[in-house]
Predict the structure.
Amino acid sequence: MAGEAHCAQHPDRVAINSCSRCGAFFCAEDAREVEGKLYCETCAARPDVDWLEALRLKYWGKRDVWAWLVGAWAAFAALEFVSSLWTLAWHGLGSVGPAWTQAVADLVMESCLVAIGVCFWSGLSWARVALPLLELIRVFLGSFRMGLLGAVFPALGLALSIGIYADVRNELFFRVPVSSARLKRWWHRYADNYVARTGFQFALAGLILPPLAPIALLCSAIGLTRVNPSAHPPIGRKQQAIAGLVLGVLGTLWGLALVYEFTHRAQMP
Ligand SMILES: [Zn+2]
Ligand SMILES: [Zn+2]
């Protein structure tokens, strides 16, 4: 039919709409929705259109701070393993006693830690589940050996490992599918304009500890220059950066007033 738009990819099909970015007509099959707007298939795949997808790709399979910490922990466990091995050799295989049993139990535990830690650092997905499980076993072992007090330290490790398991950034390292909504929430809550966020936190702390106020000013100023809502992903926290600047100035003035007061009093006879 004349006058009717056809799909750019499928000339035999009638177009349902045109792309928000390039204006090409597309049929129902080629239509892609990103953030409430319709795009053609090619444009929807662009990082400047789908910034969430670009964000996902940026961190996909990339080691996060937790991976490095668990890796360092595994290295520490390896040292402990050597020390336990030495203890075992010292007591000898013949003298089976409480110290010997303890050393064997330690060896088993430490070798598990090293294996899980190395696999975690390497991004093998089973280690993601194994880490909190191992910590749970350590809680039981600790309380069995030394009562409630012995469970306190492993319980902190368990809480931390559960926190790591639920962390979006760590999930991206392990290539776990993260929903767009969760990824977006994570970006806005933690990753977006980190400098401005830190600046605001320092500004609040600077009201009590004035020496922190200049740091808050510096961070908030840098954060403010980074604000760019049209970037991909969009960099926000403008209000927080401004609040950080205002509170930072207040904290600095307050600090200067304290210094003045102190020196003034010191000079009085
Ligand atoms: Zn397009
Ligand atoms: Zn088509």
